[in-house]
Amino acid sequence: MSTNPTRRAWVQIDGGALRRNYGRIVESAGPEVRILPMVKADAYGLGVADVVSCLAPLGPWGWGVATVPEGARLRDLAVERPIVVCSPVPPDELEEVVRLELQPTISSLEALEALERAASTVGVRATWHLDVDTGMGRSGFDFGSVDAWIDAATAPREVLRWAGLCTHLHSADEDAQSIHAQWERLAGVLDRIDPGAVPADGLLVHVLNSAGAFRAPEYACSVVRPGIFLYGGGIGSGQPEPEPVVSVHARVVHVRDAEPGATLGYGSTYSASRPERWATLSIGYGDGLPRALSNRGAALVNGRRVPVVGRISMDVTVVDVSGVEDVAAGSVATLIGSQDDGRITLDDVAGRAGTIGYEILTGLTDRLPRVWT
Ligand SMILES: *Cc1c(COP(=O)(O)O)cnc(C)c1O
Question: Which residues are identified as catalytic?
Fold first, then answer.
């Protein structure tokens, strides 16, 4: 069977742009700083295997994931570098963490003790990072009660190896001041660490996400954890723009002339107000095109920007191509990306759909083949 991935609808990924975006993170953070590309959620929907092979030659220190299965997947792909699990792990997955030599971020003494038990059971020394909550509120030891936990958390434990200290920024894309405030809180914790507890090869301190890596590179410390910028998502107004990496395309599969009054789509939320020409695109919310773009979104067809009309269905979406020359079944429509001078960015689409680029990317479903260039 021959399958042409560009037949119906597909995601196109520009590996060169991904690498150049990585290079700009390195430039901003500085050459000494290690990079931990975040490849959680199938590398933000791009496909983790391909992202890892694209970026591995650039020498990242390790890879960041959110879940244990994501770490297991990387080990299956023969990744040998450090893998840091950046979200808290359910207790019954800790033995697998140890077996796979994943590096969990730990948020409480209970979790640390559970990791210690898992490491004893498996019989392997586990490397871990201490997560500090400096305002995100969803994980980490509380910075404010540092005296209550710091000595117990950092005391040497035979089956554990303490490798790092991290926190996560809550508003780096919006507000530089918040970054400084969170840093001050982390610095208060750093000050309280007994120098004798610090590992001989030093402590890896990591704070910055993509937005932080540009807005406050002075806090790059040992490691930065970029995600969205690598994949072409914006990091806030007035900030450097990444090169676009992901584009989304679909074929026109049907074209019809609509008389005034002709109704369109579920709920007949749209009807032709004049003689119109409608083109049906073979992509819908079942592919990850947000239904919120119904009667609001746009596409590029033959280089022209055309509006989405009617409700987006699971499998198809209709655009008004009145006045666009030569639209026929087989024409390519671009939902995210460029055609000639026309451009629809990931963040345009996200804004119109009332969400963020992260959710658009991670929402693109398996129905869309990922085509790398
Ligand atoms: C997802 C994530 C990042 C990356 O954030 P971006 O905004 O995508 O750069 C960094 N650190 C942690 C802990 C994360 O969960």
Answer: 40, 266
Give pLDDT tens digits for 98-135.
999 999 999 999 999 999 999 999 999 999 999 999 99
Ligand 1 atom closest to Cα of 225?
A: 10
Distance 191 CA to ligand 1 centre (A): 25
Those residues with Cβ within 8 angstroms of residue 146's Cβ, 6 or more apart along the chain or in another chain: 188, 189, 192
For residue 264, report the distance from its CA to the centre of ligand 1, in Å.
41
- Please give the CATH superfamily to which domain 246-344 belongs: Lyase, Ornithine Decarboxylase; Chain A, domain 1 (2.40.37.10)
For range 163-177, the mean pLDDT: 97
Measured from the Cβ of residue 170, the count of other Cβ atoms closer than 10 Å reads 18
- For the domain spanning 15-231, the CATH number is 3.20.20.10
pTM attached to this predicted model: 0.97
Token representation of residue 26? 């390195």
Quick one: which of 224, 233, 265, 204 has its CA closest to 346? Answer: 233
Q: Give domain limits for the chain.
A: 15-231, 246-344
